[in-house]
Amino acid sequence: MLNFKSIIASKINEVLDLEEKIENNIEVPPNRELGDYAFPCFSLSKILRKSPNLIAEELKEKIDLSDGYISKVINEGGYLNFFINKELMSKNVLEEIGDKKEEYGSSDIGNGKNVIVEYSSPNIAKPFHIGHLRTTVIGNALYNIYKFLGYNVTGINHLGDYGTQFGKMIEGYKRWGLEYDLDENPIDKLMDIYVRINNLCKEDEVVLEKCRDNFKKLEDGDKECVELWNKFKDLSLKEFQRIYDILGVKFDSLAGEAFYSDKIENVCNILESKGVVKESEGAKIIDLEDKGLGVCMIKKANGSTIYATRDLAAIKYRADTYDFDKCLYVVAYEQNLHFKQIFEVAKYLDIPEKCVNGLTHVSYGMTRLTTGKMSTREGTVVKVDELLKEAIDRVKKIIEEKNPEMENKEEEAKKIGIGAVIFNNLCTTLIKDQVFDWNTVLNFNGETGPYIQYIFVRTKSVLEKANYIPKYNEKYISLLKDKESMQVIELLYNFPDVVKSSAEKNETSILTRFLLDLAKAYSNFYNENKIITDDKELTDSRLYLTYLVGIVLKSGAKLLGIEMPDKM
Questions:
Q1: CATH code at 4-84
Q2: Would you list the domain boundaries of the chain?
Q3: Sign for the pseudo-dihedral over CA of 14, 18, 19, 22
Q4: Topology, domain 384-560
Q5: 304 and 257 Cβ atoms separated by less than 8 Å
Q6: Which of 297, 355, 419, 555 is the most exposed place for a label (fewest CB within 10 A)?
Q7: Would you say 332 and 380 are in contact if contact means Cβ atoms under 8 Å apart?
Q8: Phi and psi at residue 159, in whole multiples of 5°?
């Protein structure tokens, strides 16, 4: 694929001969009438000791356009604006997508680089609720995107299977376990026990202390505590896997917090040897006040560890095992301070500098109910299995009303309903909070997953009705010059950059926005241009463009973890 940004950067460097990274500063103007790309000359003002406007004017006069890649350059208030050769772009897009098909937009930029994505990470013995759903689908999308770009990716489900909460669960089960039949809906019943023991702990400090002692016993290998812990874990994993199967989510590792329990002592010893560990009221801490990060506790006064210790052990293990270039933690922004602390402490763990620098917290906003924040302790959650079932049932109802004769209604409803839920979690800037509202999640009009699926199905239907067999012809370039066609082609050209940008910024909304824009552009093209005409070559050119749009819509949706239906 022709990279016009690289071409523009090299042309600027031919004139200036600077070591500045020109390509990183090239932008897309907000108003496309000003050009396809723009280079702001303000950053060069200090270096060249000239005004941005003068720099832009001088560059405009000196840049060589003889090779035909750039058709025009203008100076617009200190911005050097470039108009690319649209015919060359069209030729490139039409040929390359037709040749690469679903591999279009993939890359080998990640070749030889290792990326870990930690996502989902639900707590054992608690329901899989919509708070877990967001990390699961974000992490799955990032996993797919990085793989598409050639990285060696390891997806880790860092299960919450350790900590004081299990001391509480053990205590609750000892007290009331015989009241519950765990053969049916075990997670609901374990949650009920968890809510009951939490309420008791609020009333009775002695009970809370027993819960803390239970966790210490678990760490020390107490037989009864370990047996109960394994029981809770097995029941939970079976339930979680059922949900992952519905969502189409997989992991390469299920190493949760407990996996690192025998690796913690080594990490504590390394930190002790660095002289950074202090004692405070019997607890072991690392003082990060000088970094503005407060205090990071390593061990409690009773000798038990906390999740910071286990996360540090995980970092050390992952660096030694995977030699990662990036380790992404897809966790809500409420844990911002925690990750800042452990990333700072990780500098003392005797791991490669690239691993320390690659530690990245991909934070996202919380999911809240219309009535307020969810809490497993209070029992106020929306469970994912109920959400997905409701989504599918609602889609089935719509299908029965609008297209009762449709084949494979159950399967198509599943793709549409689950696609709607996944897209809803990925379509806004990740850092924003979300209020969970059924009407928003299952809105099948506007900027939604079902809209993209609908446009894909339309492309498929157009091609099937025409009995079209895809075949590229160079004449298509001159036949697809109308405004609507060019808008679609320009978007298709941008797809590889969109995928790369989604990975660079760890932001799924960049890809969802692109898919919405492409779907809208094709809808506009479809409405403004008669596809089947009396002119066979014109018809074939428009069918070919339709074919390419379908490929990219399906490929982009697949990266997000969304399946395309055959009918709607």
A1: 3.30.1360.70
A2: 4-84, 119-373, 384-560
A3: negative
A4: Isoleucyl-tRNA Synthetase; Domain 1 (1.10.730)
A5: no
A6: 297
A7: no
A8: -55, 140
Q: How far are the Cα atoms of 141, 146, 378, 514 from residue 509, in angstroms, in the given order?
A: 11, 15, 32, 8
Amino acid in the structure at residue 305: T
pLDDT along the chain (568 residues), means of 10: 91 81 86 90 87 92 93 92 96 96 97 98 87 94 98 96 88 94 90 93 93 89 93 92 95 94 93 94 93 93 84 97 98 95 97 98 84 54 84 91 87 95 92 76 78 96 95 95 96 97 97 97 96 95 98 98 94
Q: How many CB atoms lie within 10 A of CB 407?
A: 9
Strands (E), 77-113: 79-84
* CATH number for the segment(s) 119-373: 3.40.50.620
Q: Which residues are catalytic?
A: 126, 129, 132
Q: Is the dihedral of CA 48, 50, 53, 57 positive or negative?
A: negative
pTM recorded for the entire structure: 0.91
Whether the CB-CB separation of 142 and 559 falls below 8 Å is answered with no
As a whole number of angstroms, the distance between CA 1 and CA 140 comes to 27
